[in-house]
Amino acid sequence: MTVSTIHDIGYRHYEGRRLGRGYVLRSLFVHNLRAAYGLGRPARAKVMPFLLLAVMMLPSVGSVAAVAITKEPRGLIPYAAYANILQVVIAIFLATQAPVLASRELRFHVVPLYFSRPVGHLDFVLAKLAAMTTALLALLTLPVTLLYVGGLVTKVPDSGEHLVRYLTALVGCALFAVVLASIGLVVSAFTPRRGFGVAAVIAVYMLTSAFVVIVQGLAEMRTNFTLAGWVGLLTPFNLVDIVQVRLLGAPRSSAAMPEGTLAGMVALAVCVALVAGSTAVLYARFRKAGLS
């Protein structure tokens, strides 16, 4: 005869407030945003993101200093052109930090643990996308804001016009951030090892840029300037620059660009399609990982 005994080992039911899905989503966003800058991680994880942020700030500091010394307001770097000028630094930041957000859970097979909580697959993806976008937005807007404040301090003429250009540049920065974040996370999500993810994102940036430069050069040699302009849609930096110039009235910074408002609308539609498509791909990728 078997005798069963029930032992009271002191566990108590949770009786506190249920914070729910919104709190989980917000926590995921904050956790991933902190991870993008190495916060809450060892010191070596902070070196690269903050070093790149410092590099991004240097040209704006130099530009403001030059304007203050020479009293020549035209020496101020155009706000909307800043991202294009420093696109290599931005690409390195994306390549080094996107795998931190997209591939760590995949590498350690802990994605199913996230979905054991009241958070959906789309919530998980949106939190990561929002965090990477916010990290890039900080990288882009801080130096542009320093340029604007420096311009005001050095008393550039027509401060109202500079405010309009600054606000236009902020819209462009937001578009740059969400498009680049989408591309970087998708590439990183299919390369679970961080080193491969870094190399893959850099390869995508370099190959698309090289392809566009070569095609534009050949098209211009044949005086086919229309093709040279439209092929710029194939690189994220030129793509967003087309939107800035053709729809927002920003100064032109790309060598070749399609003419007219229609070009801006097409470029904006491509940006929307890129973000929506990337979100769908990330959803499918993490959903599959959550079931395995």
TrEMBL record:
Claim: Membrane is one of the keywords in the record: yes
Bilayer-spanning residue ranges: 47-69, 81-102, 129-154, 166-190, 196-215, 227-249, 261-284
Keyword Ligase: no
Keywords: Membrane, Transmembrane, Transmembrane helix
Name recorded for this polypeptide: ABC-2 type transport system permease protein
Upper lineage: Bacteria, Bacillati, Actinomycetota, Actinomycetes, Streptosporangiales
